[in-house]
Amino acid sequence: MNPTIAPADVPPSRLRALVFAAGALGLVAAVGLIYSDAARAYFFNDDFQWLQGARTFRLANLLHIERYTHFYRPVIEIYFYLGRRFFGCAAFPFHLASIGIHLANTLLLYLFARLLTGKQAFAGLTALFFAVQPGHAEAVAWVGAITDLLPALWYLLALWMHLLFLRGRGVRFYAISLAAFATCLLTHESSATLLPMMIALEVTVVWERGERPAARSVARRAMRYAPFALLLAGYLVLEYVVNSRSYLVKEGHYQFGWHAVPHAFQYLITLYVGRRDLVSYLLTAAVSAALLARGTPRVRFFVLWMLVTIAPASFFTWGNVSRYLYLPAAGFAMLLAETILKVRNLAAQPVSPRVARAVTIALTAALAVRFAVFAAKVPAGFREWTRPYERYVAAVRKANPAPSPGSVVYVDRADARGVPAMYRDPAGAVASCGADVHVVVR
Questions:
Q1: 407 part of a folded domain
Q2: Among 93, 143, 290, 344, which residue has the fewest nearby CB atoms (within 10 Å)?
Q3: Per-residue pLDDT of the chain in tens (442 residues, 90 and over written 9)
Q4: Residue 126 belongs to what domain range?
Q5: Per the domain annotation, does 145 fall within a domain?
Q6: Are the beta carbons of 418 and 44 closer than 8 angstroms?
Q7: How far apart are CA 225 and CA 74, in angstroms?
Q8: Exposure string (b/e) for 177-214, b if CB count within 10 Å is 16 or more?
Q9: Where are the alpha helices (DSSP H) in 63-214?
Q10: Is this structure's pTM higher than 0.90?
Q11: Would 190 be classed as within a structural domain?
């Protein structure tokens, strides 16, 4: 019979590994529970257009910029092409892929946070708050919102690799960071904020070291970003050409103006699940200004992360879209983790460290449960949104079990209720996962 090993006898490295494994399994279980309804949901809106485009995808077409009148996102096109090749037109594996990418992003953020601070507790809290954050739940629940999940993957990878390079780990990390940066550009427009955040990261590292680099050193450091700046400049020219033809710009749905300010505040309030009233606006403005003015270099970096990544989405003239909070939620998670640890340190002074630890655990659990409860409501609601499409596709399959290219399919009006006209033909094609069909509602 093997003797029982006391915790004190466990080697520190093994104990840390066990804690990490337990935490990772717990996060996976929590994410699985939150998004269980999303995994059972069907496709929704733009999903059908992406899947329809994947059927005729050709790699060479990515070079024909004149084809594009609404965004240039070749990595997303490749994603749906590969998804259709491997998954067909089944929604379940696409949803599992989105949940898996969310978990991968959580891991990347954990690794970045641990490297930035050297504290496993900080990294663990960051991963926890990011994984269960309700503000960005739509990005995980909706297949088409891979346009927010996938760029975040390259974004976080680029920042992590850049930090490894700044910490002197070798030029290979610089090369990986540059490759991730280029891939991010080809995935989504939000990547335009990545270069400013990479520069802000280096400034943060320098300030935390207490360094005051000379002018020659600043010039040498700036030259590191020349390849990134050239890639970004080329990308912005390309995006200007494509997006100038977009209906979003032509019809005034996206434009610069003061409307971005209240939108940005609304996004920040959504992150902590607050009320959109005057008190919340004033409190959010006051706290953000105070943290930027008086916070530590790390705190300023976290606040700047939120503000910079929120900015692009704030210029839409329509209401806020929660899935755009996916990247800002990473900065918020780090800021919240920093706050929790600060509370622990402050509580340890008047009382015992054990009591401070208990207070920290209770506060963390309360926040995590609150976030998880709100987050779980989004997939449940999203599943209901997809039911009309599921009913519609089933009706198309029943009416036309063996479709031929260009065939006309008739469905009852009741079966098409809740499905906008622009998605009926694409959804009809997805029903058979084959040739294009024309659906007539009668």
A1: no
A2: 290
A3: 344 444 445 566 677 778 778 888 988 999 999 999 999 999 998 899 899 888 888 888 888 888 888 788 999 999 999 999 999 989 999 999 999 999 999 999 999 999 999 998 999 999 999 999 998 899 999 999 999 999 999 999 999 999 999 998 889 999 999 999 999 999 998 899 999 999 999 999 988 887 776 666 777 888 899 999 999 999 999 988 888 887 777 777 788 888 888 888 888 888 888 888 888 889 989 999 999 999 999 999 999 999 999 999 888 888 778 888 999 999 999 999 999 999 888 877 777 777 778 888 899 999 999 999 999 999 999 999 999 999 999 988 888 777 777 778 888 888 889 889 888 888 888 888 877 788 888 8
A4: 18-381
A5: yes
A6: no
A7: 24
A8: bbebbbbbbbbbbbbbbbbebbbbbbebbbeeeeeeee
A9: 74-87, 91-117, 120-131, 137-141, 146-166, 171-185, 194-209
A10: yes
A11: yes
Does residue 99 belong to any structural domain of this protein?
yes
User: Distance between CA 336 and CA 331 in Å, rounded?
Assistant: 9
- Single-letter amino acid code for the residue at 307: L
Residues 6+ apart with CB under 8 A from 433: 84, 88, 89
Domain count, the chain: 1
